[in-house]
Design goal:
This protein has 16 helices and five strands. By secondary structure, the protein is mainly alpha-helical. The chain has two domains: 128 residues, Tyrosine recombinase, N-terminal domain (DNA polymerase, domain 1, Orthogonal Bundle), CATH 1.10.150; 205 residues, Orthogonal Bundle (hpI Integrase, Chain A). The strands form two sheets. A three-stranded antiparallel β-sheet has the order 1-2-3. Strands 4-5 form a two-stranded antiparallel ribbon. Helix 1 packs parallel to helix 3 and helix 3 packs across helix 5.
Length: 376
Amino acid sequence: MTELAPLPSSLEAVLAAHGRLVDWSKARPLAIEAAADAMAPATKAAIVADLKCYLRWCMLQRPIATAVPATPETLVLYLRWLSRSTDTRAAAKPATLARRLASIARVHRILGYGDTEALPTQAGMVRDTLKGIRRKVGTRQRQAAPLRYGQAMSSADIEPEGLTIESLLAACGDDLVGLRDAALCSMAYDAGLRVSELVAAKVEDLRLLADRSGRLEIRRSKTDQEGEGSVVWLSAETMRRLSLWLSASAIADGAVFRRINILTLKGADDGETILRHHVGSNGLTRQGVVSILRSRATKAIADGHAAIEPGQDPVAALSAHSFRVGLTQDLFAAGEDGAGIALALRWSSPTTALGYARELAAGSNAAARVIGRVRS
């Protein structure tokens, strides 16, 4: 029997669609297939998006620029275009530019370039261009708005204002949707889950302990692409909320958090509106999690559970990463060190964890503690 060739990956499909911009002479099919298999889904999606942006730009050049292999001059012009672009898909933040450049370098290597010669992305003029853009616009990235629990974590801490986990939970009702959303917010905060970890959570990964707390097994994460797995702690309150949600939804296995379709029916006699909830079989998407978060935040403000100053729009600043940032800040406010926080939340380094607590650190560093006693 003839062995069928594997279907092309999204990366191959994008490259093939722009064949005249790409020199395939050094490419080896097995190398492309192996590279696609080795990438995490999020990494592959980012590289494909970056490649599309780069190829679109190359197509607009006159004469048309060769995308792979690129010349350093082509990359310099591309970076300059990105830094001035008003296209939201081509954001001009230095971190975004660096990522797009790294994606171009990765594609070059996949297609066989860089083994015996320097990559164009490593050229001095390309590095200097990126450095110049960083100097002009700064390198600090916008951070997701934190969702702290809602209480002071130590005597030196100040009770958080605005949107908090407590305010979101207060905005969740006792209906099926409310039970799901409360369980989701509670678990995402307790474990400082990345959105990929949250949507991948399965009933089989949960375990209830004798003290009513729980454990969640994370089979794979951003910093664990080999799938060694890790186990995280969940509070008794979170386990209670998970139990209410799973019992009401009759979910016994598979994805913990799922989409709920609501059907509106009219009664035959008195015209009364009847709501029917249908729980899907597939897990929520990343977009679904963000939609739930912002919906509950909007309701929390409307119901008076969160006081917001006029003119502010805190909902727009929220992302699925807000749970993780909020927990990091709460642990820091409680006096935990960066190494312990990084271990608990599976950060790649204490530096990363402390970066999310920069504002809190200003009020609890050595100067604040010592001089604060003298000048209070």
